[in-house]
Amino acid sequence: MEKERLCRGGIYFTRIKYVKEKYGTSGMSRLYERMKRYGYNGPASEEEIKIADWYPQKYDLIFLKAVKDEFGERVLKNMGRAVPKINAGMQSTFLKWDPTPEELIKNSGRYWSIFYNFGKLEGKIMQQGEGIIRGYGISEDPIFCELLTNYFQGLVEWTGAKDVNVEHIKCVHRGDGVEEWVIRWKTEKIENKREIKWDDSLASGVDEIDRQHKYFIKILNEINENINEGDKNSLISVLHFMDYYAHWHFSSEEKYMKMYNYPDFEKHHEQHEKFYRYTQDTIKKASERVDNDLIFSVNKYLVDWLINHIMGEDKKFAHFMRTRNLVMSEEKMPEEIERKLNSL
Ligand SMILES: [Fe+2]
Ligand SMILES: [Fe+2]
Questions:
Q1: How far does residue 103's CA lie from ligand 1's centre (Å)?
Q2: Average pLDDT per run of 10 along the chain, which is 344 residues long?
Q3: Ligand 2 center to residue 268 CA distance, Å?
Q4: Separation of alpha carbons 73 and 67, rounded Å
Q5: Which CATH number does the domain 6-190 belong to among 3.40.50.2300, 2.60.40.60, 3.90.1520.10, 3.20.20.70?
Q6: HSE of 34 in the Cβ direction (CA atoms, 13 Å)?
Q7: How far is the CA of 337 from the centre of ligand 1 (A)?
Q8: Looking at the CA of 275, which ligand is closest?
């Protein structure tokens, strides 16, 4: 006789947590009612379930079917996606666990055997941003495949990966001898790129400052979007342009600071100086080698700097002007800047 398929109590916990958060205890009791009709005769409440104990996996299958019939297909799907976030999210807070999609996929077999006493799972990486998970004897019911498909999706998304796509390409319930999932995602580095978009939270309330900042952001996005590994020349040229633009923008801010005897001038000016130094430094580095690491550290530094500076010192100065009814009139932009900006 085949041994009974068991899974750890922990499996139920995250599922139940999800249902409870969404539908409350009343939703949970409705679900138990339905589960009983479907033949469930396990623990009558989740308090009785122990995380590390073994329970028949058929309870889980009944649970999944009941979720689907009680709350609908979409909820089952969302639950599958949310479970890793609940589960892995908890673990990472305690263990400072910060895995990559690659690590999760490569170790999926090990994780599987912690939670299930049957079948086998194998994960391997095919190329950057693509992995395969294969399962042998793991799925008695298509609903479990469905759950796993969404689970893998949520798992890889939880790492912060973008554009995650999971396809269940082979399925024993469709006549294949094995379960197979192809998982694709945007590679770690690209997904880590930060973006900055103009929105009202960046507005200082002084129109001319905001106008100049919008262009600044435009240039930064140009760096983000069009710079590729190995492409020294375009990175250097756009950095030069940014440096040029920054000089113009900073000096128009500083001109008014001096004119209005702004008391925090020194502190503000120092941040501008720091920015020039960084840009000069980076141009030097880029002339030697442009690799992904450089691109991403430039991206991170500039986005952080700009947001911090706009939200911090620039807003302070704008506030200073506004509360004193001081004005900053529209600065004429040098022609080269205007031409270049139009071409971006
Ligand atoms: Fe500024
Ligand atoms: Fe500034």
A1: 42
A2: 85 90 93 96 87 93 97 95 78 61 89 93 89 96 96 90 93 96 77 74 94 93 75 85 95 97 97 96 89 82 91 96 94 90 84
A3: 6
A4: 8
A5: 3.90.1520.10
A6: 17
A7: 16
A8: 2
Q: Cα(277) to centroid of ligand 2, in Å? A: 15
- Distance of CA 225 from the midpoint of ligand 2 (Å): 24
Amino acid at 55: Y
CA atoms within 13 A on the CB side of 269: 11
Token pair in block for residue 236: 């250097």
Beta strands in 239-294 (DSSP E): none
290 Cα–ligand 2 center, Å: 28
Pairing status of strand 6-8 against strand 130-136: unpaired
CA 272 – ligand 1 centroid, Å: 8
Kindly give the distance from the C-alpha atom of residue 258 to the centroid of ligand 1, in angstroms, as a whole number: 15
CA of 335 to the centre of ligand 2 (A): 22
Phi, psi (deg, nearest 5) at residue 199: -145, 175
CA distance to 30, 152, 202, per residue, from 163 (Å): 35, 13, 28
Distance from Cα 170 to the centre of ligand 2, integer Å: 57
Please give the Cα distance from 55 to 48 (Å, whole number).
12
Type of residue at 318: A
The ligand that comes nearest to the alpha carbon of residue 255 is 2
Q: What are phi and psi of 218, to 5 degrees?
A: -60, -40
Instruction: Note if the pTM is more than 0.90.
Output: no
The boundaries of every CATH 3.90.1520.10 domain in the chain are 6-190
Ligand (nearest to CA of 274): 2
Q: Where in the chain is the domain with CATH 1.20.120.50?
A: 195-343
CA 217 – CA 75 distance, rounded (Å) = 40
Distance 263 CA to ligand 2 centre (A): 14
What's the rounded Cα separation, in Å, for the pair 183 and 149?
A: 9
Report how far ligand 2's centroid is from the alpha carbon of 316 (Å): 10
Assign domain 195-343 to a CATH class.
mainly alpha
Query: Which ligand sits closest to the CA of 245?
Result: 1
